[in-house]
Each structure stands twice: as structure tokens, then as C-alpha cells.
Amino acid sequence: MALYRTSNALPPVVKNLLIINGLVYLAQVVLSQQGISLEIWGALWPIQSPYFKIWQLLTHMFMHGGFMHLLFNMFGLWMFGRYLEEAWGPKRFLEFYLLCGLFAGAAHLLLSDGGSYAVGASGAIMGVFVAFAYLYPNVPLFLMFIPIPVKAKWAIPGLMAIDVFGQIAQVPGDNIAHWAHLGGALAGFIICWIWSRNRRNTTF
């Protein structure tokens, strides 16, 4: 299956999300050099922490723990989000992205062992990955360290399986929020399933 877009221009929501995430990361770096921690306000802290605020379920997904963290997440958003936004339109894609990120944050709060704060768009991006596989299951993807293309319907569940293994294994030094990834992925699947079902029910 070949995948084509009607325009080479970045759709507005993806473009603005890339810009916002980049600006927030720049603010994190600049403020940290001044001895100011933006993470105190915007990162997702455990519920039992005195720093926890409800708005962090939203703000944490626009902050990142390093440049490579930002780069990989924004590459995933650029790579797959533009197809979803073109298929759904800006409003629905933004709704989807934010819901996946919020659900990912909630999953992390409820299921993780606590500890330090969490930052990153990875939960929302996992939702984007799952939605892409749901809409375009047979599109071949090239993954790192795998020299042959793998269809999206197998590649994305493979990434989820890695998160499941990471959560079970509890490898020392692993600072990845696996529950957030899996929560975002589950939200992406549920939303896609509901939307596709509603569309079928309203088709005459």
C-alpha cells in the first residue's frame, strides 16, 4: 500500500505543536541556566508530592528531559501526525492528541510507583502511532536495527510490547515512563475504535 498526502505543507496543528514543544524546551534550558526550574511548575509530579498540580496532566506533555527526547518525539509527530491531521482535520486531530496525552499522564499517576516527575509527549505520540496503524495497517515502516520493512499493524504493537517488557523487567536506570506510553497507546486505540464505529453507524 502506498501512502500519499495531498499537500507537502505541514498541517497547522502538527506545525504549531512542533513550535510549542521547541519553544518550551528552549525555555527549560534558558531558565535552568538561571537557576529556575520550569519543571517544578509544569512537569507531572506524583500525586503525593507537594509540587503536584492538576494542570500538570496537560503541561507535562509539552516539556522534555533532553534534546534527544524532544527530537525523537517531534520526529514521530512529524512523521505520522501529518497523515492523521490530513485524514481527520485539525480540530479532531488536536482533540485526539490532547486526549491521548491526558490519558497517558493519568495512567502514569495511577499505575507507576511514583518517585520523580515525568515529562514528555511520548504518551500522546504513542497514541498517534497506534492511530496510524489503525488507519493505515498495511503501510510498510522501516524501524531502527531492522533492515526490512514491517507493516504498521505489526510494527506498532511491537513497540508496545517493548514497553510491556520494560515495565515488567524493571531494569535499573530505566527512566522511561512505560505506563504513560501504554496509556497513550490504549487511549489512541479506544478513540479510533469509537470514532470508526460512530462513522459506520451514521452511514446510510
Element pattern in H and E? HHHHHHEEHH
Number of helices: 8
Q: Average pLDDT across residues?
A: 91
Query: What topology, given as strand order, has the largest sheet?
Result: 1-2
Strand content: under 5%
Structure summary, number of beta strands: 2
Q: Outline the biggest β-sheet.
A: 2 strands, antiparallel
- Straight-line distance between termini: 28 Å
Which regions contain 5 or more consecutive residues with pLDDT less than 50? none
Estimate the global geometry from the Cα principal axes. globular
Secondary structure: helix percent: 55-70%
**Rg for CA atoms:** 17 Å
Which structural class matches the secondary elements?
A: mainly alpha
Can you lay out the helices and strands and say which pair or pack?
Blueprint: H1 12-33, H2 39-42, H3 56-59, H4 67-88, H5 90-111, H6 122-135, E1 140-141, E2 150-151, H7 152-169, H8 178-201
Antiparallel strand pairs: 1-2
Helix pairs in contact: 1-4, 4-5, 4-6, 5-6, 5-8, 6-7, 6-8, 7-8
Describe this structure in words.
By secondary structure, the protein is an all-alpha fold. Helices cover 64% and strands 2% of the residues. It is built from eight helices and two strands, in the order ααααααββαα. Strands 1-2 form a two-stranded antiparallel ribbon. The radius of gyration is 17 Å and the shape is globular. 35% of the residues are buried.
Task: Summarize this entry quickly.
The protein has eight helices and two strands. With 204 residues, it is an all-alpha fold. A hairpin with an 8-residue loop joins strand 1 and strand 2 (150-151).
